[in-house]
Amino acid sequence: MSSEDLHAPRERLSPRTLAMHQAIVSLKEELEAADWYRQRADDCDDAALKAILLHNMREEIEHAAMALEWLRRNDADFDRQLRTYLFSPGAITEVEEKAEKKT
């Protein structure tokens, strides 16, 4: 893990914070990779290569989902927000307002 991404001295960070950092950085990298594969597939004229690129994109999305689930399981704030917003019906921007009315 690159310490360049840390905004505080590593020795001052708790093991939990370092693990969260690793998961968040990994999630960002997986999402970026999925974006790159999708762009390459859009730009590709060879059908077989396009299929491979889209397969690779889906693999990166799977990896991102796994990292996101780890974050949810290991952080109450992530858990609360993901439970509020994921798979919610209606306009995403109205979810918070509806959730606040329930509490």
Short key terms for the protein model shown above:
single chain, 103 residues, mainly alpha
What's the helical proportion of residues? over 70%
Oligomer: single chain
H/I helix tally: 4
Gyration radius over CA: 18 Å
Order of helices and strands: HHHH
> Quick check: average pLDDT?
93
Number of strands: 0
Overall geometry: flat
Poorly predicted segments:
none
Intertermini distance: 39 Å
Class per helix and strand makeup: mainly alpha
Biggest sheet statistics: none
Q: Which percent range describes the beta-strand content?
A: under 5%
Can you characterise this structure?
The structure is a single chain. By secondary structure, the chain is mostly helical. The protein is flat, with a radius of gyration of 18 Å. The relative contact order is 0.09. The N and C termini lie far apart (39 Å). Helix 1 runs antiparallel to helix 2 and helix 2 packs across helix 3. It has four helices and no strands. Helices cover 76% and strands 0% of the residues.
